[in-house]
Design a protein that fits this description.
alpha+beta, 5-stranded mixed β-sheet, 23% helix, globular
Length: 82
């Protein structure tokens, strides 16, 4: 499963945007995951407008997703392909 990790500049939180999930969402959205709030839809524009999170920033969220989706591997990518 390909996931883009972006960060909120002011809040410092990280959001995971799931590639290939647009077909399951309202138009213009993809599935997302954050530690607080967990799964939900998010605008695809976040994949362009928010800066990429570093490995150190997204590592805790990656571990959380790995626990949820095991045994399916989570592959961090740099570009959102909805």
């Amino acid at each position: 499963m390909k996931v883009v990790f972006r960060k909120w500049p002011k809040q410092g939180g990280v959001i995971a945007l799931f590639c290939g999930s647009a077909k399951d969402c309202n138009p213009g959205n993809v599935m997302s995951y954050m530690h607080v709030g967990q799964h939900g839809e998010a605008s695809r524009s976040l994949g362009q407008n928010l800066p990429l999170a570093t490995l150190a920033e997204y590592q805790p969220l990656l571990r959380e997703l790995q626990a949820i989706y095991a045994p399916e591997p989570i592959e961090p990518v740099r570009r959102l392909v909805a």
